[in-house]
């Protein structure tokens, strides 16, 4: 690596030392070579096995003894340290134009499940910590702490999948099945635990056995390891009320428009004090060109949930004194077949070539023929072209390699289904595009929200339903491309596992596949005028900026061939999946860095950080299994554990009990808790619109000793990340 007498010779590769015999033979052979070298002084050399740490320590020792220099060079002994190269080394190529950018997106369904398990485990560990913290020793047998070993199993299953052949989507089919089954089992276990923990924290659980069934069900049902979750529908019969509990895993209070599915549209939403809450109802949609409407309904309302706390709402049918959920107005367009107007909604036909939806902050314009986004106009005067495009690459790659043949070809044709829903809280454009195939591989919804004083008002929600199945899509890779008018000079930024950003630049000298980069959760472009276009993702994917103002993101890929990198098969086990983006368009309020002249990575704005946190740490919703009589108004105790919300640039990465064995088996004494904090680095050049929900930033120290209500923190000390 350096011009010294200390040499590093790596031994082996991914497919070496696969047996004990091979390892022993290799070791003995090299050891004999080392012994020969070391026993011959005339060779003037010493050879031995070592680690990277051994290498750099030997290098340092040598540099301390000898000054290495050539004419016009500074010797290593005269400078502190050696030259070093930092970065993530993307995008990797092992030969010619074989770039390893395909695995960023391979098996995206399981990449999404990985993220769901991660956020569910985070929330479960938090609830377990609260159980222990607020537990009086005499009551501890009532708590579902026996699930501690299942939290440990979930942590291990998540870590197993995040091994490089799991989350990358590069494992054999039977291994993928094992990964998926493990994650599915852990998700089921965690949801059962969370439902029981919620009962305890609300003061509902009186039994002393962990074996008693929970009183709540999670709102989403996962029938099997490789199936999309389905929203559990609330029946909402006349004269009954259904309890709904929301848990907020974030360290700030949330004002957010939430959605549940109901079988009947005549419902009313009530808060925990049985006060009326404004709501709207709209039909549930599905990816079926012959039956766009499922017959069920979505009810939206604005929920307010305390930081790291619980909030209860009630869905009632027949509650006197409150208005029922307001039905959305529908506009329909179709060139495929007629769409019947669902009951009880008012429907009209789309007129003209464009349609719009708007809230108090932005107006979105769509083309009717293709159902794609065209333009975004901010109410502050900012206007951006955002031409959405759905396209397919033809490819001869595999699980690891992205090997496109030519440019991506748009798949949307003139026609298709278009449904526009307009209501006071949510507006939506749903598009089932007409394509060259009988069944389109994708349909998509665009939503904006208007709850007042919410993060959601500033974002655009895109949900893509992807079905890249069957022989029609063999050796195809599906992308969405946003063509904007931002002069980014083909420079963009992607995150490194949500912690920091990396600058990416598109180079003419390398092919398209070499200009694709991983996008774990965020990609954004910035123009010379400071305008930004950001896309937050609910799962890891791959992104590129092929031309100025373009940001394309790969959604799914279906490859029949092995690419010769060790898997030994193609990747054709695609699953039906949903990909969710939150798009944010911002303008700066003060001078900001120029991406062209500044090689340093830029940081997201404070608002952008909050958008990402809400997307990747959503509210966890639970529904009471049994409805109750509408005349029996129960009042559950509130749960709001934080004395005050934390600053909005401070994130609780983890709050948990280090070893949550059964409480009765613990030694007598005060329980210990782990609190891991991350202060986000944000760009002050952009408006702190997030301050609509945040009261402060972390400019002042946070007092850990009075952080929680009713809990006395006796001692706090720093520790290592591995505890």
TrEMBL record:
Family: Belongs to the glycosyl hydrolase 38 family.
Name this polypeptide is given: Alpha-mannosidase
Cofactor: Zn(2+)
Compartments in which it is found: Golgi apparatus membrane
Pfam families the record matches: Alpha-mann_mid, Glyco_hydro_38C, Glyco_hydro_38N
One Gene Ontology MF term: mannosyl-oligosaccharide 1,3-1,6-alpha-mannosidase activity
Top-level EC class as recorded in UniProt: hydrolase
InterPro entries registered for this protein in UniProt: Gal_mutarotase_sf_dom, Glyco_hydro/deAcase_b/a-brl, Glyco_hydro_38_C, Glyco_hydro_38_cen, Glyco_hydro_38_cen_sf, Glyco_hydro_38_N, Glyco_hydro_38_N_sf, Glyco_hydro_57/38_cen_sf
Cofactor: binding comment: Binds 1 zinc ion per subunit.
């Amino acid at each position: 690596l350096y011009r010294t007498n200390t040499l590093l010779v790596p031994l082996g590769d991914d497919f070496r030392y696969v047996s004990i015999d091979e390892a022993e033979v290799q070791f003995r052979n090299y050891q004999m070579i080392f012994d020969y070298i070391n026993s011959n002084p005339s060779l003037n050399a010493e050879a031995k096995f070592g680690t990277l740490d051994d290498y750099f320590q030997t290098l340092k020792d040598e540099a301390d003894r000898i000054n290495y220099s050539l004419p016009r060079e500074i010797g290593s002994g005269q400078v502190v340290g050696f030259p070093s190269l930092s970065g993530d080394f993307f995008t990797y190529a092992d030969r010619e134009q074989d770039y390893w950018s395909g695995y960023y997106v391979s098996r995206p369904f399981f990449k999404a499940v990985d993220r769901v398990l991660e956020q569910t485990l985070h929330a479960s560990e938090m609830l377990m910590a609260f159980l222990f913290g607020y537990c009086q020793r005499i009551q501890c047998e009532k708590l579902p702490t026996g699930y501690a070993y299942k939290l440990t199993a979930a942590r291990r299953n998540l870590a197993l999948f995040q091994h490089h052949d799991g989350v990358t989507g590069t494992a054999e089919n039977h291994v993928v099945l094992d990964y998926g089954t493990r994650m599915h089992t852990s998700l089921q276990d965690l949801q059962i635990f969370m439902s029981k923990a919620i009962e305890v924290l609300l003061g509902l659980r009186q039994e002393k056995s962990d074996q008693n069934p929970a009183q709540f069900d999670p709102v989403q049902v996962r029938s099997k390891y490789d199936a999309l979750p389905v929203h559990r529908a609330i029946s909402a019969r006349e004269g009954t009320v259904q309890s709904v509990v929301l848990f907020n895993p974030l360290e700030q209070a949330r004002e957010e428009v939430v959605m549940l599915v109901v079988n009947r549209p005549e419902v009313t939403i009530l808060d925990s004090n049985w006060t009326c809450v404004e709501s709207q109802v709209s039909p549930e949609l599905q990816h079926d060109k012959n039956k766009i409407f499922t017959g069920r309904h979505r009810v939206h309302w604005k929920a307010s949930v305390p930081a790291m706390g619980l909030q209860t709402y009630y869905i009632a049918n027949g509650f006197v004194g409150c208005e029922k959920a307001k039905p959305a107005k529908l506009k329909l367009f179709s060139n495929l077949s007629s769409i019947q107007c669902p009951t009880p909604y008012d429907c009209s036909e789309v007129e003209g070539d464009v349609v719009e939806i708007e809230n108090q902050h932005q107006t979105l314009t769509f083309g009717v023929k293709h159902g794609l986004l065209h333009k975004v106009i901010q109410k502050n005067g900012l206007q951006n072209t955002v031409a959405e495009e759905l396209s397919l690459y033809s490819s001869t790659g595999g699980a690891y390699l992205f090997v496109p043949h030519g440019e991506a070809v748009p798949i949307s044709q003139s026609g298709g289904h278009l449904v526009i829903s307009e209501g006071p809280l949510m507006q939506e454009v749903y598009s089932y595009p007409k394509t060259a195939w009988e069944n389109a591989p994708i349909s998509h919804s665009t939503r904006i929200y208007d709850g007042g004083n919410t993060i959601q008002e500033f974002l655009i929600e895109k949900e893509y339903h992807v079905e890249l199945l069957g022989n029609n899509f063999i050796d195809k890779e599906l992308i969405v491309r946003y063509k904007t008018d931002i002069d980014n000079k083909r420079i963009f930024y992607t995150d490194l596992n949500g912690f920091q950003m990396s600058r990416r630049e598109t180079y003419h000298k390398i092919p398209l596949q070499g200009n694709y980069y991983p996008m774990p959760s965020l990609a954004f472009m910035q123009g010379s005028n400071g305008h930004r276009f950001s896309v937050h993702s609910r799962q890891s994917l791959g992104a590129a900026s092929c031309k100025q103002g373009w940001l394309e993101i790969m959604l799914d890929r279906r490859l029949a061939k092995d690419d010769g990198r060790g898997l030994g098969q193609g990747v054709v086990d695609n699953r039906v999946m949903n990909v969710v983006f939150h798009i944010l368009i911002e303008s700066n309020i003060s001078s900001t860095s120029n991406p062209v002249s500044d090689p340093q990575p830029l940081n997201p704005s404070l608002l952008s950080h909050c958008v990402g946190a809400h997307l990747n740490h959503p509210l966890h919703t639970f529904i009471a299994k049994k409805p109750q009589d509408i005349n029996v108004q129960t009042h559950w105790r509130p749960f709001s554990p934080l004395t005050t919300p934390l600053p909005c640039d401070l994130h609780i990465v983890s709050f948990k009990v280090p070893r949550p064995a059964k409480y009765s088996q613990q030694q007598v004494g005060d329980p210990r808790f782990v609190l891991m904090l991350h202060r986000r680095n944000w760009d002050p050049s952009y408006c702190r619109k997030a301050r609509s929900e945040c009261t402060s930033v972390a400019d002042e120290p946070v007092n850990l000793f009075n952080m929680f209500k009713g809990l006395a923190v006796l001692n706090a000390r720093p520790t290592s990340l591995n505890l």
